[in-house]
Specification:
4-stranded antiparallel sheet; 16 helices; 3 domains; elongated; RNA-binding; 461 residues
RNA sequence: GGCCGAGUGGCAGAGUGGUCAUGCAGCGGAUUGCAAAUCCGUGGACAUCGGUUCGAUUCCGGUCUCGGCCUCCA
């Protein structure tokens, strides 16, 4: 049984989808005006794991992750660059897809874009006006009337009164209440805009997610996810919009992942302390980054640092070293590793605990491999299968270990083999100084040798 | 200021009312020509002050510290 922490109730709950065997999940994706940073990578990897695992549990999953391709930041950035906004967004959408693929993130089933859903957005706004939850301001903007929605603040644990205290009032504001938020923004000159019953304009940020999720998944669906910074106001506003428009409960389980941090501070665009996925992938392998993200439970902070990435590198080397040389086999039966792995995953996706189980599996493989090759192979198959549920450990072990972690490739595989052969000859002649000199030479080139009864193997380390 | 969340061994990071996390690093041993890899063993922790309890790192309360949201942000 899967247990999920539901932000709506602030408690772990047994997961029961609305329709047996079907899970409908919506995750807030990126606003595409720049490259993905590690925070975006975390969202993608975390919910990739959720989707993969639910599928492994046998659910028929519909996973929707949207793209916000029109908003103020996009317009500003496009103006700065002197290019049409859709040229800008297409470029960053392509970059995001590359980053996601590199990190082993499977594509969502649907990836709707705001600009493709203007009719749905407009009709939801019309319904909100009809139902008394929204009003047209004098300047053609349409606002959500926050006070018309009794439950406003439930998800984020805020009361309208508390919010009011900190609310910012813009001079000349056309809103009835400072907390009201825009559903439709009337177009300023030279801005991208669409026709609407309220004149030309564009959607507010929050309405697109309500309109697209409802269209794709129905009035009520199972899981809605995103970064913790979206809890308020974005997700709070989505609830107000969707429930205001449909009259039905919006989402059953709300999941928010914690932030990536640097030096105990949130990594964010505004603080300027972010690393893009690309920058990190120049120095670390994709699987190392993915592993690093999973070393922390998804709701906890994830502290970024070279030390942590180096640790991920070492961990994967240990995993693949255990897998190296094991023949293909059927996964072992009758061990409790699988059961413990699943117990960890089903406890709100406790990936650190699940990884701990995999390490114990590694130790067991290493322990038995010398006198129970078949047993080791079966355990290795189990390790691969379980790792696969996390999107890890799917490479050929030998290839992985020889592929190295960014070491220079001054020496080709053939050169290395030649040196190993020369060293072997020296060893047979008991010429230890010659043998060690060759080993040192390789070590300087980033090649680590490992002698065993079966011969000498090497890896880039 | 309001509302959340967190403080675990050298580092990272789970978890639990009373025996073990796990990985890296350290130490001892096995193995090795020497290494590497691997295995075995091992030291070291639960911010702080009270309370509940036979017993608390784990539950409750105070204090301190840190982070987040309250404005765009994954």
């Amino acid at each position: 049984m899967l247990t999920l922490y539901n932000d709506l109730t602030r408690a772990k709950e047994a997961f029961e989808p609305l329709h047996a065997n079907q899970v409908r999940m919506y995750v807030c994706g990126m606003t595409v005006y720049d490259l993905c940073h590690l925070g975006h990578a975390r969202v993608m990897v975390v919910f990739d794991i959720v989707a993969r695992y639910l599928r492994a549990m046998g659910y028929d999953v519909t996973y929707v992750r949207n793209i916000t391709d029109i908003d103020d930041k996009i317009i500003n950035r496009a103006n700065e660059r002197g290019e049409p906004f859709h040229v800008l967004t297409e470029r960053f959408i392509a970059a995001m897809h590359e980053d996601a693929a590199a990190l082993g993130v499977l594509p969502p089933d649907l990836e709707p874009r705001a600009t493709d859903h203007l009719p749905e957005i407009i009709s939801m706004i019309e319904r909100l006006i009809e139902r008394g939850h929204a009003y047209v301001a004098g300047n053609g903007d349409v606002y959500y009337d926050v006070r018309s929605f009794a439950d406003y603040g439930r998800l984020s644990g805020k009361s309208i009164e508390d919010l009011q205290a900190g609310a910012r009032v813009e001079p000349g504001d056309v809103k009835r209440d400072p907390l009201d938020f825009a559903l439709w923004k009337s177009a300023k000159p030279d801005e991208p805009s669409w026709e609407s019953p309220w004149g030309r304009g564009r959607p507010g940020w929050h309405i697109e997610c309500s309109a697209m999720s409802t269209q794709a998944l129905g009035d009520t669906f199972d899981i809605h996810g995103g970064g913790a910074d979206l809890t308020f106001p974005h997700h709070e506003n989505e609830i107000a919009q969707s429930e205001g428009a449909t009259g039905h409960p919006f989402v059953r389980y709300w999941m928010h992942n914690g932030f990536v941090r640097i030096n105990d501070e949130k990594m964010s665009k505004s603080l300027g302390n972010f690393f893009t996925v690309r920058e990190i992938l120049e120095r670390y392998r994709p699987e190392e980054v993915r592993y690093f993200i999973l070393t922390s439970q998804y709701r906890s902070p994830l502290n970024y640092g070279d030390e942590q990435l180096d640790n991920a590198r070492g961990a994967l080397t240990r995993f693949y070293t255990a897998l190296r040389g094991l023949p293909t086999a059927e996964p072992a039966s009758g061990t409790n590793f699988e059961q413990r792995f699943h117990a960890a995953m089903q406890d709100d996706f406790n990936t650190p605990e699940a990884l701990a189980v995999l390490f114990e599996l590694v130790r067991e493989i290493n322990r038995v491999r010398s006198d129970d090759a078949a047993g080791a192979a079966a355990l290795g198959a189990t390790l691969r299968t379980l790792g696969g549920l996390l999107g890890l450990l799917q490479d050929d072990a030998e290839d992985y270990l020889r592929g190295g972690g960014g070491a220079d490739d001054a020496l080709g595989d053939d050169d290395i083999q030649q040196l190993i052969d020369r060293r072997l000859a020296a060893k047979q002649a008991r010429n230890w100084s010659e043998a060690d000199a060759i080993r040192d030479q390789l070590k300087d080139a980033g090649i680590v040798l490992e002698d065993s009864a079966a011969g000498t193997t090497w890896r880039r380390g």
